[in-house]
Amino acid sequence: MIAKEILMRHKKAFEINVDAQQLELGGDLHWRKGEGTHLLSPDAIAKLQHSCRTDDYSIYKEYAGQINDQSRKLKTIRGLLKFKKQESIPLDEVESVENIIQKFCNWSHVFWIFE
Fold first, then answer.
1. In this predicted structure, what is the pLDDT of residue 54?
2. Which domain does 68 fall in, by range?
3. What 3-state class would DSSP assign to 88?
4. Residue 37 — φ and ψ, nearest 5°?
């Protein structure tokens, strides 16, 4: 299904008479001024893109603040959760990546057996 849609869009994009054709927007959700609120507004996307292109952490913090503020307004699952303030765990007490990955690999074999 996805491959079929990709091929269709590719064909439309690279037709000889491109000026006469316009690509479909695709997707179900579109931002429209004055119609509801969206987590990923044009302003938020612009800040994210700008921060990535210029490697500007302060602009990223503005983006993150805007997104996090929206999550507090119950636009995300995270907005429904309350987190307790706790001290960080020292890195020397955290299990190594190799051990964690090994556990996932072992469990995947166990689930495969019971399918």
1. 93
2. 39-81
3. coil
4. -120, 150
Are 41 and 33 spatial neighbours (Cβ–Cβ below 8 Å)? Answer: no
**Angle formed at CA 83 by CA 93 and CA 39, multiple of 5 degrees:** 120
CB burial readout 43-69, b (16+ within 10 A) else e: ebeebbeebeeeeeeebbebbeebbee
* Number of separate domains in the chain: 1
Query: Is residue 97 included in any domain, yes or no?
Result: no
Give the whole-angstrom CA distance, residue 74 versus residue 76.
5
Separation of alpha carbons 99 and 110, rounded Å: 17
Tell me which DSSP letter residue 89 carries.
P
Residue ranges, the chain, pLDDT below 70? 15-31, 71-72, 105-115
64 falls within a domain: yes
Q: Output the pLDDT for position 29.
A: 64
pTM above 0.90, yes or no: no
